[in-house]
Amino acid sequence: ASRHSEDGVLVIGLGRFGSTLAETLQELGHHVVAVDSNHDLVQRWSGKLTHVVEADATSEEVMRQLGAHEFRQAVVAIGTGIEASVLATGVLLDLSVAEVWSKAITREHGRILERIGVNHVVYPERDAGERVAHLLTGRLIDFL
Ligand code: ATP
User: Fold this and answer.
1) Model confidence over 34-51: pLDDT tens digits?
2) 42, 53 contact by CB (below 8 A)
3) pLDDT tens digits, residue range 106-124?
4) Whose CA is nearest to atom 20 of ligand 1?
């Protein structure tokens, strides 16, 4: 990836949220590099995603070697491991990634991410609940 390439997105974590995000971005034609520390998951996704790396995203040194600082956008899709989520988010912010999005499970988790300077917090369950409410009432067009 070239520095600040317009369409490159770094995705950390290949759980249900991260893998769907990475796959969708790739289908939309974006350059995606996905990182997960779980060997089996990396193996599983290496057939579908073009760039999958097995690495610990909480290590600044590892992420620098991976070229994380070259991305303009990154998404931390680690939810249940709050410590890993916060550390990985901090590393990306320290590496000056311009736009860091992080997934949060609880409001408290999201607040910590905001305090360390994340650009966007995503609450998948809350967002899905909101979306389904709009879908149920046939008001999706208003919602979008
Ligand atoms: P989902 O709900 O999207 O399935 P989740 O909320 O259960 O995910 P986690 O299981 O906490 O989220 O993390 C998602 C992924 O992030 C996992 O595949 C896990 O291996 C990966 N992960 C966790 N810690 C690290 C880390 N330090 N570096 C890289 N990847 C990590």
Assistant:
1) 999 999 999 999 999 999
2) yes
3) 999 999 999 999 999 999 9
4) 38
Q: What is the DSSP string of the chain?
A: --TTEEEEEEEE--SHHHHHHHHHHHHTT-EEEEEES-HHHHHHHTTTSSEEEE--TT-HHHHHHTTGGGEEEEEE---S-HHHHHHHHHHHHHTT-SEEEEE-SSHHHHHHHHHTT-SEEE-HHHHHHHHHHHHHTT-HHHH-
Question: The tokens 């369950």 sit on which residue?
Answer: 125
Residue 53 has pLDDT above 60, yes or no: yes
Global pTM reads 0.92
Cα 13 to ligand 1 centre (Å)? 5
Report CA-CA distances (Å) from 116 to 49, 66, 102, 119.
30, 22, 11, 10
pLDDT of residue 2: 45
Ligand 1 center from residue 38 Cα (angstroms): 8
